[in-house]
Each structure stands twice: as C-alpha cells, then as structure tokens.
Amino acid sequence: MQFRVAILGCGTVGGGVARILLEQRDALRERAGQDIQLARIVDLFPEQSSRRHGLPRELYAGAGADLTQQQADAEIQRILEDPSIDLVVETIGGSGAAILATTRGTLEHGKHLVTANKALLAKHGEELLGTARKHGKGIGFEAAVSAAIPIIKVLNECLTGDEIQSISGIMNGTSNYILSKMASDAQSFDAALRDAQAKGYAEADPTLDINGGDAGHKLTLVLRLAFGLDVEFEDLPRRGIDTVTAGDVAFAHEMHGVIKLICHAQRVGDSVHAAVTPMIVKRTNLLSKIDGATNAIRVIGRYAGEIVLIGQGAGSLETGSAIVSDIVFLARHGEHALPRPVATGFRLRPLGELRLPYHIVFETADMPGMTGIVATAIGRQDINIDTVSHNRHEVDHAEFAIATMPCTRSQVERAVKDIQGNHPGSLLSEPRVLPILV
Amino acid sequence: MQFRVAILGCGTVGGGVARILLEQRDALRERAGQDIQLARIVDLFPEQSSRRHGLPRELYAGAGADLTQQQADAEIQRILEDPSIDLVVETIGGSGAAILATTRGTLEHGKHLVTANKALLAKHGEELLGTARKHGKGIGFEAAVSAAIPIIKVLNECLTGDEIQSISGIMNGTSNYILSKMASDAQSFDAALRDAQAKGYAEADPTLDINGGDAGHKLTLVLRLAFGLDVEFEDLPRRGIDTVTAGDVAFAHEMHGVIKLICHAQRVGDSVHAAVTPMIVKRTNLLSKIDGATNAIRVIGRYAGEIVLIGQGAGSLETGSAIVSDIVFLARHGEHALPRPVATGFRLRPLGELRLPYHIVFETADMPGMTGIVATAIGRQDINIDTVSHNRHEVDHAEFAIATMPCTRSQVERAVKDIQGNHPGSLLSEPRVLPILV
Q1: CATH number belonging to domain A151-312+344-351
Q2: Bridge partners of residue B42, in order along the sequence
Q3: What is the count of residue pairs from A and B with beta carbons less than 8 Å apart?
Q4: Do the chains contact at A301 and B321, CB–CB below 8 Å?
Q5: What CATH number is given for A2-149+319-337 in this structure?
Q6: CATH architecture classification, A355-437
Q7: CA distances from A60 to A65, A70, B125, B298, B325 (A)
Q8: How far apart are CA B413 and CA B134, in angstroms?
Q9: Rounded CA gap, B20 and A146, in Å?
Q10: Contacts of B322 in chain A (CB under 8 A)
Q11: Beta strands B271-282 and B257-268: pairing type?
Q12: Chain B interface includes A87 (CB < 8 A)
C-alpha cells in the first residue's frame, strides 16, 4: 500500500523531511505498515534546494526549473487536487491568508496535514482543527513546539490519564543561547545577540525570538493541548529577554539561579495562569542546567509528578525527524490521530495573580539605611524576604537584589510605590522584577 | 458509549489506577470519547485494599469479602468471559503460568490488556503481542518501564521517523537511590541499602533491584521497541550494583563523574551492543544529575540528536497515571494501538566489544614505580590514558584509578594480564573495571 506525501517549501525544514523520507524508506514502511513515498516537492528554487539537501531534481514540481510565485501556487493547487496524494507537509511558513488557504485546502481535499508552523497554528489552530475533524483528517504539528522534543504527543497521547498542574518550558533556543552566553561569558545582551547571529542561532531579524513572540506561539499551542484553553495569541502576556541586563544575570548567579525565558502555565482551580517571561530558575531545578540552543519542558501532573523532556528545539534534521514521525503516526492512526476537542471551561489569568517568589533588583543612592527602607516597605506588604544580595556599590549609586517568599505581583508593586512615595529620590530607577521558578 | 475496565490485583499500583479512574472520570470521557467505567476489581483482600485506596467496597468481586485464591481465580475467569468488559488491567505481578494464562486469556476473549508487569513481558512479550495481533486487540505497557516516563509511547509513536542510535537509562529507582546515598553521604553499599529499605525504596528482598534483574527486564522491552530485537532476558548481560564499593564512588567523584546503574544499548551497523551495568557517568551528562529514586532515559536519534526524559519510576499514582493513559490510548486507537512488528535482523552483541572509555581501579603494593608499571602495560595494549587519580596510600597498599580513552574491554583485560604476568604480586586484587558514559 502506498502513502504518498508532498512537501510544500523545501528550505531548512522541508529539506530535512525529504532527506529522512528517502533515507529511511524501508524502515518507515515497516513502522507505518505502508510505503511512505515522497511524491512531489514544490519549491521556488529547486536547483538550490536539491543541491543543499542532496535531493533528486526530478522530485521537484515544474521539472526542476526555478518557479515564479504564480507557477508555484499553481503547482500547489495541482497537489491539493491530486487524489493520489495522502498527506501534505507544509514547510513554507507565515500565517497570512495564502498559507491559511493552502493548509485549509489540504484538509478540505481530504488529505492529512503536517506542519511546523507555530505562528499559523497559534492564530488559526482552532479553525484548522475544525476543518480536519469535518473532513475526517488529521493534523500533525509535533515539530511546531520544541522540534525534536515530542511534547505534542506526550500531551495528546501519553499524559491523557493525568491532570496537568503546570508546564514550564524553555521553548526558544535563540533566547536560551543568548542568556547562556550572558551567564557563562559575562557578555552584554547586545554582544550575546551578535554572537548568536554570527553562529546562526539567531536570524538577521531576531525580533520574534527575543521579544517572546515565538515562545508565545508555542505556549498558545501548549495551552490548548494541556488545558483545553483556546487562547488568542494577542491575549497571552509576553515579555522577552531584551530587557535583561548583565547585572540581572550576575544577581541571579549570586542567588543560586540563572535567568531563562520561560513559557509558564499553572493551573489553580478553573484558572490557568500563563505567560512568557524571563524567570530566575533556581539551580535545584533541572531547567537551570539547560544551556545553549537546547529546549526543555517540565510538566507536573497531579499523579505522575514531575516529568522533564529535553532536546533540540530547532535544526533541519531535528525538526525533520518530528515531522516524519507525524507522517508515520497519521499513516498508522488516520483520523484517530486528531486531538479530541476538550472543553474545560478554564479561564486564562495573569501570572501576576499567582503567589510566586520574586527577584527584585533595586538601584538606589549609595547611602546607609537604604536596605532598611526597602526591606521595611516590603515587610509592610506582608511579603517575607528570603535573601538580600548587596554587591554593587558604585560612586554614586548602589544596586542590590531581594528574593522574596511567594507573593503576588501587586504586593511587589505596592511595596515599590511605598518606597517611591515615602522616600522620593531614593530609587534611581524602576526596580527590575522577575518571578522565580523553583 | 461505555468502555468498561476491570482491574485484577488492587495493591499499590492497581489501587492507584482505580483511584484515578474514579477521580478523573469526566475528564477521561472527554479525552477518550467514551465513558471509561471502572466495572470490577478483583483482589484477595477487598477490605484492606478499599480502605488503603479509598475505594467503594461494592466495586470488588465477591461482594467485598476476602477471597480465597480459588475464588479469586473464578472471579477472574468470569471477567475474562464477560463480553461487557472491554479492557483488563493486570496488576497482580509475577511471570508464571497462571499470570500468563490470565493475560493471554484476556486477549483471546477479545479484550485489550494493560499491564505494568515487566517480568511477564520480558519473558512472554512476543507471545502476548502475537496473541493480541491475532485477536485485533492492543496491549498497553507504558507503566512497565520507568512508570511515569512515557518512554514506551515515545519509542512506539513519537520517534518513529528517526533511527535510534543509542539508549542509556537509569531505570531502577532503588539502585539509583542507593548509589545516590553512597555518593552524597559517603555510605557503604550495605548502609545505603538498609536506608533504602527503611524509607520504603527497597523491598525486604531487594535482589532483583540490586542485581540488575529488574533493570534487565526493562531493557529487554526497550530493545524490542527501539531496535526490533527479540532478546531472551537470560541472554542480556547484567551486572548489578552489589559490587560497587564506597571507594569506587569516591574515585568516580574525583574523575568528575558519578556511578549509576545504566541500561545501555548502542547500535553499530547491524549490531546492538547492550547490557545492564554500573557506569561512571560524567558530570557533563545530564544523567549524572538524576538522584534518588528518579529515573531518566537518554535516547540518541540519528536525526533528532539527544533527547532526555526524566520522571518518577515507581509509586502508586505515578504508575497509575501511565496505566490510565494506556487505557485512554486503547479506547481511542483500538487495535491501531499495537506496536507494529519490526524485523530488523539486528544481532545482540556484548557491550565489551564496543570501544568505550573505561575507569579502572587498581589496588597495588604502595611502592614507587607502580604507576609506571600499570601505565606502561596499558599503553602496550594501544590504550590512551585520559586521567590517573592517585589518592589512597595506606600502610600496606595503595589504590589508584585510571580513566582510559575509548578501547574494548578485551584490551583492558589484556593489560591487566600483562601486569599480573610480568609483575606477579604487584596487584593485590583483581582491578575493578567500569565503562564510562560521556
């Protein structure tokens, strides 16, 4: 039996998929119970793509010649209408009308869809899942979150007997690489970013990586699977790493922690508190040990307890491996592969309402009494102090960090207002506040 | 639609399953698309079991009264013959004829089987899978290997697009607890074992945990899933932790490593080198950081690279969570849930044939020249030395450790024979050899 696959877009990820499908054809036949045949590739630049990935030119639509966008669109349409194609891999990217039409059309024409496109799924996931259900087809998107880490199937197929309490993940490798460099080489944010760009870990335009947008797309998908929460991407609180300073990194180190960009979601009753934010991760937490471009996700189940998954979050073959696994899963399970709609009625709430320990860096005048003023104000808001780290005394100002016991963000804000109101001029800048992940 | 489940044996694990099925019934209905009903429990001691797990007595066969073995057997037979039961959870344990008959009978009567019984599956897995295929039913055994870590589905359903190169796992929590105690508290093996027994991490008879038998059962299952290798449990080389000394642990520490009981399997061409053995795990490897009763498994895929999964390897609810997830999976995917038979034609080979770095502890006379004699003999076998750690000088003997660069076990053995032959009496005992996991 043949199971015919077309790949739309054969760049870094699509090329990895094609290579694995060709190299592993015999093994995949055994595992899928069907011969998974790479039937067609559509790419604007077949010569370049085939050379880069070592793929035969004859697999490319248009006889291997470069295509105009219009020609490529026509080839894609031909694939969607070809009844012999069972599954389409979308590795074009983007989240606009054209790619939505292509992916929706794939399902409407009765084909399974596999995609790594987190932006598309974060925006249009519900609609695409609905279309898939209507047409009895599946959508595989294992590669959309932390590439090689099988978090999608772990949530959809493995932890289904449990009740998930929280998820905390390092899901953006670029941010993690930059933060790791800032910590290990005491680099500034700008220097670490340039290093990441030089090494190919960051794009020329790294905006979505460093502002938490990419991580936010992933957390949006995870919230849907883990908590049945249909979140608008725009509603998800996001803060990137672009505000993290070398000083914050140094204070974190003294507090036995490291700064990581964390996708965090925590259930309390019928609420799910979620955000993308830099956090201080304590050294006792395994996530603190994940350096470079590696991703890691901690899931806490009511029954299973803590489960941690670690792996590569990007890369041609790493992402390709996840996509080909999705193809096998769809060939084996067909329409059973679709995650069931789960209507939990949970509500998204701000992370700041949760009681969390906080790490606060104060920049003050360098004069006796400042620690007392700050500590007193914090105590007046009923916040217990865990640690005070006092290590920057310059000529004209001092910096020190306070780690609190669990409290809400608004308690912290009231304490800061108290200081600013009662001791005007004592704080030289707005305190920098990060939640702590234990 | 109803999906009716019976539990055979309601002790630690069965009780956890029952509790989760009752507590999560609404959520499970959403996820499985069917109402998963706990229909019947068979246990010899319903009063004790129901009190311990907070379960209603009326769920127990025999009207909640204690059963003789004969009565229990009759109740089990009645369940197997009851066409309204869709799935049987076997949490009785053992690998003898009776439990084989019960599990085989479950499948023959057209019911799905879920079990955590690694000993049964290691011995009779092929037969049971064959029976399941014949009758179009599934077997779930996620809980059989590292309880809460979803390694079975990760291998069966997630990494199916990849080619697995190696698997290294801490799969026995008791051993890991004992080794962690020996490392952190400088305890002897016997003291750490007594501590583990006092804390409930080790059975009164800990034989299978400390001699590598339990880990061997798990590795047998993993070899089948990851490499299509049908290994007789007896053929799998196994060494436990009972020969590890406090001195070995101290030397490992000096070499920037820790001793862990590792289930290791590594593919080279058409061979899979596999064994259960204590190894020195270098501090740079995440497995070195897994302490106490926690389990961890590192999978290296040709395309995905390194993936590490960490979680609890035992416990009532932790194991129960995995079993209930299997129930949901079978309710959703039915006979599609069965792993496909994969005939790879791979052969099992001894780990010692692999080139691995080794850690060798020599006990020698305390006299000048010994390091040179030993190092020269090692060099003569073409083994490069990485580190020599020389830190035990007693009145009448010295101990030192050598870490080698990768070589085969027989090279090491030839070097030892060389020393013993050319310098009789210089080695006061047989050197202790452990492979190193980088």
Answers
A1: 3.30.360.10
A2: B8
A3: 189
A4: yes
A5: 3.40.50.720
A6: 2-Layer Sandwich (3.30)
A7: 8, 16, 44, 37, 42
A8: 48
A9: 30
A10: 161, 304
A11: antiparallel
A12: no
**Which amino acid is residue A53, in one-letter code?**
H
Residues 6+ apart with CB under 8 A from A276: A212, A215, A216, A219, A236, A237, A238, A239, A240, A261, A262, A263, A264
Tell me the CATH class for B2-150+319-337: alpha beta
- Domain residue spans in chain B? 2-150+319-337, 151-311+345-351, 355-437
Which among A156, A148, A57, A186 is positioned nearest to B325, based on CA atoms? A156
Contact of B351 with B175, CB cutoff 8 Å = no
Residue A110, SS3 per DSSP? coil
ipTM of the predicted assembly exceeds 0.90: yes
Q: Where are the alpha helices (DSSP H) in A356-408?
A: 370-380
Rounded to whole angstroms, the Cα distance separating A11 from A50 reads 10
In chain A, which among 234-293 make CB contacts under 8 A with chain B? 286, 289
Angle at B268 between CA B264 and CA B271, to 5 degrees: 80
Query: Does residue A218 have an active-site annotation?
Result: yes
pTM exceeds cut of 0.90 = yes
Token representation of residue B128: 């049971």
Residue A123 three-state SS = helix
Catalytic-role residue among B118, B218, B260, B282: B218
* B35 in contact with A, Cβ within 8 Å: no
Could you read off the pLDDT tens digit of each residue along chain A, which spans 438 residues? 899 999 999 999 999 999 999 999 999 998 998 999 999 999 999 999 999 999 999 999 998 899 999 999 999 999 999 999 999 999 999 999 999 999 999 999 999 999 999 999 999 999 999 999 999 999 999 999 999 999 999 999 999 999 999 999 999 999 999 999 999 999 999 999 999 999 988 888 899 999 999 999 999 999 999 999 988 899 999 999 998 999 899 999 998 999 999 999 999 999 999 999 999 999 999 999 999 999 999 999 999 999 999 999 999 999 999 999 999 999 998 776 776 666 678 999 999 899 999 999 999 988 888 999 999 999 999 999 999 987 677 778 889 999 999 999 999 999 999 999 999 999 999 999 999 999
Tokens of A220: 């949006």
Cα–Cα distance for residue pair B36/B17, rounded to 1 Å: 12
Provide CATH code, domain B151-311+345-351: 3.30.360.10
